[in-house]
Amino acid sequence: MDKKLIIIVSVVIVVLIIAFYLTYTSGKKSGGNPSSAQFGAGVTGNLAADRIAFVQNLAISLHSDMDGFNTSWNTSLYDGAIALVDNELVALNNIYNELYQSESEQTFLQWLENENFDYGMQLDAFELDGKVKGLKAKLMTLGAS
Fold this sequence. Notes:
The protein is an all-alpha fold. It has 2 domains: 1-30; 36-142, Orthogonal Bundle (Annexin V, domain 1). It has helices at residues 3-29, 49-66, 75-82, 86-104, 108-114, 125-142. The protein is elongated. The relative contact order is 0.15.
């Protein structure tokens, strides 16, 4: 091959790699399309400040519980999510996505779908899996994606 052609091809490849990298990192920083994962009236809807704080702490705790390899879940967290009324569950979904979707590239519903709750060392793992299936169904009914 001609030396000039090799240099031109090399420059084109480097430029393409840089362009791909810049596109990827700018999309990751913006969280892809986080607005598509939120639904309802804003992130927290019309919740009182104390309920917003409760739901936000629950979102953080749920993420900590599901993040990484886990064989022993804190079932009270999922009971708390299941017990939320509709507008609180919408806020939980939206807060979770606002906090973690750009980092993990998964919505709250996708985290729940990808977590294997029926595997674990605790006796109530199968019961928890059933509860989470009900939580996922309720989220989908409310419009989560």
